[in-house]
Amino acid sequence: MEYKMFRKIRKKTIKSQCVFNNVRKLLKINCLLALTLVGSENIFSERLVITSPIKEGEYIDRIDIEEVEIASGCGITEIPDYAFLGCTSLHKVTLPPGLTKIGFQAFSECETLQSINFPLSLEDIGSNAFTYCSSLDELEFPSSLKHIGHNAFSFCTSLKEAILPDSLEEIESYAFSDCDSLQKVRLPANDRLLGELMMNCCPELIEIEAPSEKAPKFDCESYIFDPEDMAAYERCVLKLPENGIDSYNVSKSWQMFNKIVTYSK
Q1: Where are the domains of the chain?
Q2: What is the largest CA-CA distance in the chain?
Q3: Which pLDDT tens digit goes with each residue over 217-229?
Q4: Is 249 helix (H, G, I), strand (E, B) or coil?
Q5: What is the pTM of this model?
Q6: What is the 3-state secondary structure (H, E, C) of 149-204?
Q7: Domain with residues 45-159, CATH architecture
Q8: pLDDT above 70 for 182
């Protein structure tokens, strides 16, 4: 499975990446030394205001940055891959109107990130975009959003709720896996294909609302949780429109739930 393979690859490549990781550590140490030596000089800044296009990986591992604002009207429509990867002091991000895409691992490992706005123009959140953002506890997804990549919010261990807009056309595998505090999820009100095990290993998840009257299928004929995790299917309540109960009852992916509640639209 894609996520498990990702974890295995991550583990297997630790040794081969040791030189790269040591360089990242040295850069962080140098950054701290520079902050100590130059104080309030403009070499480093706690608050970063961006007015021109961002390069891939431009701010990777910048531990001095605490807040980022991308100025309105600057014409930036995309946060490129790795842009703010490993910015461990970053706690607030303000994105501008007109932004359409957040790239691969753009904010991954920003472990103190608590606040980020998604503008109404946003269409694409890339794979692993917010992986390991362990302080991110609240998100508001815009009605413009069409795609969430695999593992986009994996290990966002403070996230409590995910209300997904009906505009979504694709949610890839493991998108919200290993979110330890996640309690409630609302899926889009459409029957488009869902990513395999997209909510796997979310031990506090107690409610999933599936508003579509036709049961969505899962990629690779999979499930929303690991089918061997019976505790998850016993704990979590599945909320369905009463006109859709028959469709879910004949789907092997949805039959696993022990608690099903229906409501009228």
Answers
A1: 1-44, 45-159, 185-265
A2: 68
A3: 999 999 999 999 9
A4: helix
A5: 0.84
A6: CCCCCCCCCCCCEEECCCCCCEECCCCCCCCCCCCEEECCCCCCCECCCCCCCCCC
A7: Alpha-Beta Horseshoe (3.80)
A8: yes
